[in-house]
Specification:
Helix content is 42%, strand content 12%. A hairpin with a 5-residue loop joins strand 2 and strand 3. It is an alpha+beta fold. The chain starts with a strand and ends in a 12-residue tail after the last helix. The chain has one domain. It has a three-stranded antiparallel β-sheet with strand order 1-3-2. It contains three helices and three strands.
């Protein structure tokens, strides 16, 4: 079960940290895993699955600026 750190995550999904956080808060993005008190990560398989299911060509408010 590979884990993506925040830097890898941003490269994979192409979204800013703020956008990822907002999507997580709304329950529209895979949940982060607390690895230690100061480190988080995401399961790579969940993120890739999320990308496959995400509609193409549709940007949310503010995501295309």
């Amino acid at each position: 079960m590979p884990i993506l750190n925040p830097k890898e995550m941003k490269k994979v999904v192409g979204l800013s940290t703020t956008t990822i956080w907002r999507l997580e808060k709304k329950g529209e993005f895979p949940r982060r895993i607390n690895l230690t008190d100061h480190r988080v990560g995401w399961q790579e398989a969940e993120v890739l699955d999320w990308l496959k299911k995400r509609p193409r060509g549709i940007c949310g408010k503010g995501e295309n600026s």
